[in-house]
Amino acid sequence: MIRFIKNMVEADKHNALAEKRNIQAFEKHVNAEIKVNKQEKRTTNAIEKLRNRKRGIMKTSISTFIEVHKKIMQIEFNQGDGIRELVMNMSTPIDSSYINSWFDLDRKELNTEQMLSAYFIKGGISGVIAKEAEMNARLASIRNRQADVALAQAETICVALESIEVRVNKISDLLAKLNVILIKTIDTTSAIISEKGIDKQKYTKQDKEKLMTCINAATTVKKIIDTPILDMEGNITQELIKAIQHGNSFLEEINNKMKI
Question: For the chain, what are the domain ranges?
């Protein structure tokens, strides 16, 4: 009888321990999911902000530049002036067909949530964790260890998502600064053309340099807008990194000129 009572007490202890571990495991899973969902939301918002900024610039600054660009081409500068060479070096001409094509692609592109889920989110953390932490209903200690794995997985995912968020926000800020320069150079170019007309002989070296700055600004903005944000593995594309480097260099060059 005493042994029976002792065994029952031990069983109750084991049951209580198992229940405690099960609760701990459940809480870890919940915390892991909450953590990833919060970071996923921040990253999604950052990407959507960048995409909206791209759309806005295409509808305003780039559309305005196209009209100015038409006027520049009417002037028929000589070969060697630099302006015609800049236009010829554009991988894709900045014209109305370019804008139409860009928005066609934009409409077909995955939305931000689909973009993230395409490579490693798979419907939130549950998809990733399910493979690493399938819980054994009979073994509470295993449940707890697997919950630890799930938490570690959540940390890894959050680091990756946060890295994307930080980089995307930097791109948004860079694009905003470049757009300010583009707008200013468009205004300057428009004023010069309104004053000088289409007679190329009236344009000074300084005038031509200002026109070239406008074309360079539009080309730089276009490079960043055209380049995909993420590849299919969830990494910032190498093409975008190069476009960002080019954008920062151009921004620094313009800022240095303004100091002179």
Answer: 8-259
